[in-house]
Specification:
Strand content: 15-25%
CATH class of the largest domain: Alpha Beta
Number of helices: 18
Mean pLDDT: 81
Helix content: 40-55%
Oligomer: single chain
Number of strands: 22
CATH topology of the largest domain: Nucleotidyltransferase, domain 5
CATH superfamily of the largest domain: UvrC, RNAse H endonuclease domain
Low-confidence stretches: 232-239
Distance between the termini: 79 Å
Length: 583
Amino acid sequence: MSLKVKSPENLPKKPGVYIMKNADDEIIYIGKAKNLYNRVKSYFREKLDRPKTQILMSHFHSLEYILTNSEKEALILEANLIKKHRPRYNIQLKDDKRYPYVKITDEKFPRIVITRNITKNGVYYGPFTDVGSVKSTVKFLKALFKIRTCRNMDGPCLNSQIDLCYAPCKGNITQEEYGEIINKIDLFFQGKYSVIVKNLKKEMNDAASKQEYEKAAVLRDQINSIEEIMEKQFVDLVDDDLDQDVIAIAQEKDEIVVIIMPIRNGKIIGRDDFLMSGSEYDSTSEILFAFIQQYYGYNRHVPKQILLAENIDEKNLLEEWLSDLRGNKVHIKVPQKGVKLRLVKMAQKNAEIIKHQKKKLENSLIELKKYLKLEKVPYVIEGYDISNISGKFAVGSKVSFKDAKPNKSKYKRFKIETPGPNDFAMMKELLTRRLKLIESDPEPDLIVIDGGKGQLGMACEVLDELDLTHIPIIGLAKEFEEIYLPNSKMPVIIPKNNKALHLLQQVRDESHRFAITYHRKLRSNNINQSSLDDIKGIGKKRKINLLKEFGSIENIKNASVDELKNVDAMSQNAAQNVFDYFH
């Protein structure tokens, strides 16, 4: 329960959280205190030294406070309230939700899924900034440990038949055995690769001693796969079993780039970068404190050690809180020499590089605003394209770029229903369907259409019909890279070496890639459905065995009758039927 006051005079001298509001009753700042009276009173001095405090108090109108049992409880409550209300004058970790997490579900036989939504159910790892890498890792783990991927355990699926799942739905594995596999995956995401390999080697030796050679061979292959991944992806630094995170920052006006490098068993296992805002008048110590508080306060692995470039205020309080989260002692250190100092400098260098990269991206958006005469900087750009062959398997794509970088969570594919070939009408359908979703998918700052005057004119008709003519839109013609604007006879020409043009080309090319990938998938699915399924004598089992043996329809086409006959469950007649069908 919070209590409202106008001044600090009636505040208790106890730990808690104070919530400052403006005249419109909006929360503008949230802070914690060991002694609420002393802390809040410091805001009401006649002379305020810090510019941030002066600005904050110029908007102050009223105050609420919540008492806690300790300063540590106040720290936790402050972090939760900042995340919930995102006050204007607090330092804030930005764009956290754009990063995916890996989730192990809390089902009887758990699955591994990639998600951007955190709930109370399941175990989460992340966030991961490299989406492609995390997808590859999850795909690797699913195949390696043969865990289920189906949502409903309603009978053996194709994966179980081609040996990619243990099929718990069929009773092929007990819950206890399956749980041991999930424990290995948990160790993998904790970075304890040597522990996994050690346990697998013990299982392999046990299986071999019991003459379970098939099981031993599977375990051997798992060991080799994990060791290969370790060799390819991780960098050796030092023979050290410490569990560490290295944190460094680089400041640019009101925005901070924070780099965090997790180190497990003496190996760098990745690098994440984050943005923090609202820090224009804050010290490095305050920024680092806010980052650690907000980063580790939300379902993340807490290491034994955190390495920083400089000391921070209230370090002991943070260590006490982090130790509670971890379950044993956590240390925050500032290394002065050796490998740990080199790690901190490496992280700082990475932060500076990313800061400069972000500045360049910002400059490309500003350049784009200038050339296209836009009213505001186009932070969100959407690109659209159509792909079809003579009207067949027609698909449309929408790609989204945020801050000049692909925002793949906002990509969307469409099966086009307009009969073709008619690219203009298909594009009209695509834009109409997407722009009718404005309430659930907010409008962009700029739309890029692949094409010239004709395509742009049709797109403008859609905006007019939907009363969305305020959204800027352009057509990018590929041959000469000319940019067409509505109600303009002459195209805009951006110099070939300009980053603004490169960004538009990237949007256009990405929308084309995304569309054609989906188009090829539909064509491939159609081929798979219309070939083997139509051959007399080829049922589900033979189809699976053929695909497992030859890998693709094309290879089956090129196989001889004898090669087809040698596939498991195939007869002479069935092999001849397949051969005759393709020849």
